[in-house]
Amino acid sequence: MRYTIRPVTDQDAEGVIRIFNYYVRHSFAAFPEEEVGSKFFKDLRKMSKGYPFYIVATDNQTVGFGLMRPYHRSRVFKRTAELTYFILPEHVRQGLGTRLLEALTSEGRKYGIDTVLATVSSLNHISVNFHKKHGFTEYCILKRVGRKFNQDFDVIYMQKFLDHSQ
């Protein structure tokens, strides 16, 4: 299957919402308990304004998305961004997460980003391992702060410093 990674457009709203809602219903990767609607996409567009926001697509459908957003409103933190990405399960383990992460961080470097953060549920072992594999380290664990599907979980904050020589 041929995949492309490209900047998001307003026409991608339905695909982004569909992917996110899959994870809302079936995993600890997305924190909400209730499915999201069109406002969610508008909020993502707003919070990622001025940062990269990409779609992973096949010839006929959106299968993933990822974005950067500011870590904090204050300009003193402008070098730091938070990452979010989701790829439908039937398309994982094909290098798409790595390609998407590389696209986001490469573009982020152009904006002066040298630190990226990820917030991961302790019960999302695939994501924790993905981040560790790609050079992220755990810098903070908030114990038992989340509860979903009648299970408590920790929130793990992960961090990676970007090399600007790449």
Q: What does this 3D model show about the protein?
A:
The protein has helices at residues 13-26, 38-47, 96-110, 125-133; strands at 4-7, 53-57, 62-70, 80-87, 115-121, 137-148, 151-161. It has a seven-stranded mixed beta sheet with strand order 1-2-3-4-5-7-6, sandwiched between helices. It has four helices and seven strands, in the order E-H-H-E-E-E-H-E-H-E-E. The mean pLDDT is 95. Helix 1 (13-26) crosses helix 2 (38-47).
SSE blueprint and pairings:
Layout lengths: L3 E4 L5 H14 L11 H10 L5 E5 L4 E9 L9 E8 L8 H15 L4 E7 L3 H9 L3 E12 L2 E11 L5
Low-confidence stretches: none
CATH H level, superfamily name: Gcn5-related N-acetyltransferase (GNAT)
Overall pLDDT score: 95
> Which architecture does the CATH hierarchy give at level 2?
3-Layer(aba) Sandwich
Q: Report the sheet-strand fraction.
A: 25-35%
Helix content: 25-40%
**For the record, what CATH class applies?**
Alpha Beta
Which of globular, elongated, flat, extended, rod-shaped describes the shape?
globular
Number of strands: 7
Strand order of the largest sheet: 1-2-3-4-5-7-6
CATH fold-level assignment: Aminopeptidase
Q: What class, by secondary structure content?
A: alpha+beta
The Rg value, from CA coordinates, equals: 15 Å
How are helices and strands ordered from N to C? EHHEEEHEHEE
Short description:
With 166 residues, the chain is an alpha+beta fold. Helix content is 29%, strand content 34%.
List keywords for this structure.
166 residues, alpha+beta, Aminopeptidase, seven-stranded mixed β-sheet, 4 helices, 29% helix
